[in-house]
Amino acid sequence: MEKNKAIVIAAIVVAAIATIGVAIVLTPAQGVPTGLSGKLTVAGSTTVLPINQECARLLMEENSALRISVSGGGSGHGVKSVGAGEIDVGAASRDVKAAEMEQHPDLKPVAIGRDSVAIILHPGNSVRDLTMEQASKIFSGEITNWKDVGGDDADIRVITREEGSGTREVFEKYVMKPFEREIAGAASVKSSNGEVRATVSSDAKSIGYLSLGYVDSSVKAVEIGGVEATVANVLLGDYPIQRSLYLITKGEPSELERAFIDFALSSEGQQVVEDMGYLKVTTSGATTSTPAPTATPAATATPAPEEPGFEAVFAIAGLLAIAYAVLRKRK
Fold first, then answer.
1. What is the H or E stretch that residue 69 is in?
2. N or C: which end of the chain has fewer CB within 10 A?
3. Which residues contact 321 (CB under 8 A, 6 or more apart)?
4. pTM of the model
5. At what angle do helices 255-265 and 267-275 cross, to 10 degrees?
6. Which domain range does residue 311 map to?
7. pLDDT value of residue 30
């Protein structure tokens, strides 16, 4: 009798371990993946650049044989270079254009975050709010003095991004094109979000625009129609300028490319996205849908299964209950 009890108990233990083991195997490992090696080149949007730099740092920190080169250059550069096979992963802060898809039909974009574009002023500028139309007139050169929008009697100096910048294209889409205006040719052109911020922060008469993630105390984000440029207002849909952030591969990603993109989509990677001032692909309490790149559906990440929890506990409890009943009958 005691021998039979021992056999039954052993069977329970094995079944319980197997149940827990199955639950753990089905759950992707959390934390930074290890065992990666090789070289990876990532380039493109300066908006996505801080995310890529931090993800690369975390991955290389845990994988000594891994080398990831990360650079900017703008969204246009990222799309063109990955399409031409010059880099492994491209970064873009706008949707892929139809013309780009026609030239490189095997591009595979994956949304890894969301962002907005803020119009910024020097902190000492008294102007707090602009309408979209006022902003379009300023950047087109129709309004040239701050007094015309409630500010001091001073010339306006317009700062913009270079052609091919994803930030510029999103700005033009939401601010300029609805009013059939173009950015003035006399505007001072800067090649990165950081340069725009540095220029506006040191020039009280200037106005520019940059990624919401780059806004800090050195500049002032102007309200648009009375709505502040904040993450909360973007999530609520109240702030009118929104966009998705992409990582792009040429064809199906290689094992190393997939590892980098998967990490950006993991809980750790999404925390990096949030820490850099951007919005996660999905945020608690709100679904952050990502617009598909023009002329091609965006690749979607498979949601990670939940951690082993009540399901595993209930399964083990069920096995123990059955075993208890069997033992009672044997007495």
1. strand 66-73
2. C
3. none
4. 0.72
5. 60
6. 2-27+306-330
7. 56
